[in-house]
Amino acid sequence: MKLQKIVNRLQKLHPKEIDLSLDRIKNLCKKLGNPQDQIKAISVVGTNGKQSTINVIFSILKEAKIKCNIYSSPHIQKINERFIFNNQELDDEKLANLFEKVEKINDNQQITFFEILSACFFYQASKYPNNINIIEAGLFHRFDATNILKSNLASIVCSISKDHLDWLPKDQQTIEKIVFEKTSSLLNSNIIVSKQNSINTTDCIKKTLFKNSSKKFYFNEDFSYSKGENGFFYYEDKFGGLKLPTPNILGQFQLENISTAIATLRLLDFNIKDEDIKNGVTKIKSVARLQEIKSGKLKALLKNNQLIIDGSHNEDGARVLNEYLQTLNCKKHIILGMMANKDHEKYISYFKDITSLTTIDIPGQSNSISGKKLKEKFKGNQNVQYKKDIVQAIESLPLKENDLVVITGSLYLAGEMLNLN
Fold first, then answer.
1. Which end of the chain is less packed: N or C, by CB atoms within 10 Å?
2. Number of domains observed in the structure of the chain
3. Are both 31 and 77 inside the same structural domain?
4. Is residue 266 part of a domain?
5. Alpha-carbon distance 260 to 248, whole Å?
6. Do 266 and 350 fall into the same domain?
7. Are residues 18 and 106 in the same domain?
8. Is the domain of 125 the same as that of 206?
9. pLDDT band of 209, cuts 50, 70, 90
10. Looking at residue 165, what is its pLDDT?
């Protein structure tokens, strides 16, 4: 209760949820003693795959007995997920105390919720100067609250695609502009670029980074992977090759994120052993990213049918989700809820051979599109229906043995479903 009261107060410190600027957080961090200058950080930018890449790095570092602090967003089920220190989420009491300290120092000055959360992370992270900090950028990067570091160990550029276009002028809603916003202000250190969804995107990144003096490492040029047989895949870079066990997470695209994570850690030379990597890739924690739900209230409604929750919400996320679904020999039932500012038609256009599509409302999200309006956008699909909530949606499905149910379209929806489950 105390934590939620403080969160409510912090959310009221600025009239806008997002207001891209660095001035407010710089001013607050100056009052805090510029804690961001006292940490060792790996910055993670991009559109898709950031959280998955972070999860892989975290898993391998834990195997190597290296302690981490992690800052990520948004949270899926509870705000504590955003604040990991010494490999552990802060509990409610410690997080509330941290928020109160920074709130007091901020002295009621206007600052967005994300900005003050970022300042809180930097402030707490500075107390662990030897830890590796893994910091996920928010909306974009150039004016993102995480972009106040003077130096870092490396920057990881995950897959970049079109998303959050409503924050760009109409004539600038291009992949070139998004790449510029996400990569033009990366620090001079090491830059590791993950697999992109097109050659054009990779070329845009190279053009933007041309004058950046960092050491640059590109997927398929400096590191790569190939899928082997008998439950293994192969990773290779300038340090040599690794034969690795199949990861514990679903999806071919995850091998791209895993490879990027391994490339980063080998490049930074943390004295990580091959065995740490082999063990780490089988212990990756992944929430709402192609997450199979094996028990709980929602799973009980489906009995023996498989249930997957995936928070993908843009066209690149839809593409990789559909690529995974196409590898499965079963009927697929999609339950979809989305935020209002997404390209709904583009998202669903990637899905092929769907047995049924059910749109639903996302509870508690005023910025979501209603399930009824979402259904209207897909009225050309004969198998689309609207149900008010997830229970009604599941109970309405004409399920047969081996059918798969996928709940997708929004991380906010994924969080609601996981809490309900």
1. N
2. 2
3. yes
4. yes
5. 17
6. no
7. yes
8. yes
9. very high
10. 64
Taking a C-beta distance cutoff of 8 angstroms, is the pair 323, 253 a contact? yes
Residue 307 shares a structural domain with residue 413 = yes
| CA separation for the pair 161, 316 (Å, rounded) | 6
pLDDT one-digit tens code per residue, 324-351: 999 999 999 999 999 998 999 999 899 8
Q: Residue 251 — φ and ψ, nearest 5°?
A: 105, 130
Give the tokens for residue 60.
């391998």
pLDDT score, position 167: 65
Per-residue burial over 10-46, b if 16 or more Cβ lie within 10 Å, else e, is beebbeeebeeebebbeebbeebeebbeebbbbbbbb
pTM as predicted: 0.94
| Whether the Cβ atoms of residue 125 and residue 42 lie closer than 8 Å to each other | no
Q: Lay out the sheet containing 240-245: strands in order across.
A: 223-227, 232-237, 240-245
Cis link prior to 169 (omega < 30° from 0)?
A: no
pLDDT at 166 over 80: no
Retrieve residue 326's tokens. Answer: 């196409």
Q: State the DSSP string of 67-99.
A: -EEEE-SS-SS-GGGGEEETTEEPPHHHHHHHH
Task: Answer for the pair 69, 85: CB distance below 8 angstroms, yes or no.
Answer: yes
